[in-house]
Structure to design on (420 residues):
């Protein structure tokens, strides 16, 4: 189905634009659905096997996501991001509702849950680049930074609402009820996505034919190579991808694995983990709100580099926080600085990239945090077991600091600005 094209209209702030609000509602519903789905999957896996087997089921989603993410970017550019997001959320809706029906009828083995996790990860590999490529099709270029701030708020809201909603569903009707709730949330996103009307782009003639409702031809690998060449030759995007990859590799492992180990070693227990995660989420949410309200930050490239360096210092300081209140305060600082740098990275990707390549570029920018870094979490845990939690935090902070220093030493990235 071809999308209707938005005619010229006076520019509106992103938070007042019906197009952006529809997209934001669909994205929020999908994000909450993700959280409910993963909670339901973990509960069903724990109920059907050992903790080690449950951990394996939860980890298998990352494998197809890492392997297929770049090809998902090609699909988003070929077929158009709106169409791909619609198809992905439809597939996730049907799959989760199917799991709910199976769980109501019988008690499936772990093999079915693992298969579902693999399929979900493969669909994610297509969904994520398409979501990243949609904003320029629904908002003016000078509103893209604000859209990224709103997206960050929606993501945090999904994380905050998803866990208690999933827990309530499990308590009420078991994993089947939670899978049904996730499917309903994915279904909620579909009419909002169908109602989107896409903007004409300045480079419309460069878009793949798939965006115009025709079949795109040519080898997929050639399209992928074209996207990588576009990145390599771009004075801002090329260095930015290196910066994002280094930051993700240094940040994801220590924060996801290290916080739990730190709380255990200090005797803070499960409530301590909750407070640390709440502090990080509050800081990251404040950063997203800042960008959503202001619309842009001056000297974006320089600000990006320095927030990464200062964020690395805060990550290292977490390992030496003597008491829980101090650690929570440091976690707020980590979330704020990481939130600013992350939002600026996404905003620069949106504003610097030719829309014809945005699906592929979004896939590359997501590869570190969603594809490679999760696969390295077992190594992070093993390193913490050998050398302790402190060295793991310090090593991660060093990699984060390297990413910020790299951004500050590349003139084209340091001078990058967001549009007014």
């Amino acid at each position: 189905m071809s999308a209707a094209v938005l005619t010229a209209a006076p520019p509106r702030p992103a938070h007042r634009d019906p197009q952006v609000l529809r997209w934001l509602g669909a994205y929020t519903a999908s994000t909450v659905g993700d959280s409910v789905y993963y909670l339901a999957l973990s509960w069903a896996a724990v109920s059907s096997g050992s903790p080690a087997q449950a951990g394996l089921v939860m980890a298998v989603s990352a494998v197809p996501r890492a392997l297929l993410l770049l090809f998902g970017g090609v699909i988003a550019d070929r077929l158009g991001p709106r169409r791909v997001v619609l198809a992905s959320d439809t597939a996730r809706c049907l799959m989760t509702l199917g799991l709910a029906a199976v769980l109501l009828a019988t008690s499936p083995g772990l093999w079915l849950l693992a298969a579902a996790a693999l399929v979900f990860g493969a669909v994610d590999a297509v969904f994520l680049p398409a979501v990243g490529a949609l904003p320029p099709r629904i908002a003016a270029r000078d509103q893209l930074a604000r859209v990224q701030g709103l997206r960050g708020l929606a993501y945090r809201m999904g994380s905050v609402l998803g866990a208690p909603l999933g827990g309530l569903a499990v308590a009420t009707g078991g994993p089947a009820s939670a899978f049904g709730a996730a499917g309903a949330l994915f279904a909620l996103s579909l009419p909002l996505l169908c109602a989107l009307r896409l903007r004409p782009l300045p480079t419309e003639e460069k878009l793949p034919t798939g965006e115009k409702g025709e079949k795109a031809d040519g080898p997929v690998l050639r399209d992928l190579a074209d996207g990588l060449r576009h990145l390599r030759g771009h004075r801002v995007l090329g260095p930015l991808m290196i910066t994002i990859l280094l930051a993700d590799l240094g940040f994801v492992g220590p924060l996801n694995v290290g916080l739990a180990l730190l709380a255990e070693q200090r005797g803070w227990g499960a409530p301590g983990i909750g407070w640390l995660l709440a502090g990080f989420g509050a800081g990251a949410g404040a950063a997203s709100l800042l960008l959503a309200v202001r619309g842009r930050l001056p000297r974006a490239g320089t600000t990006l580099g320095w927030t990464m360096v200062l964020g690395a210092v805060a990550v290292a300081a977490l390992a030496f926080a003597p008491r829980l209140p101090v650690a929570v305060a440091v976690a707020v600082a980590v979330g704020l600085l990481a939130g600013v740098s992350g939002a600026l990275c996404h905003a620069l990707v949106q504003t610097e990239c030719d829309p014809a390549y945005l699906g592929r570029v979004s896939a590359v920018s997501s590869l570190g945090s969603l594809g490679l870094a999760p696969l390295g979490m077992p190594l992070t845990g093993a390193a913490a077991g050998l050398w302790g939690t402190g060295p793991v935090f310090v090593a991660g902070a060093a990699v984060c600091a390297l990413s910020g220093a790299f951004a500050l030493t590349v003139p084209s990235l340091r001078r990058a600005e967001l549009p007014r």
Notes: Residues 144-194 form the longest helix (51 residues). The two ends are 34 Å apart (CA to CA).
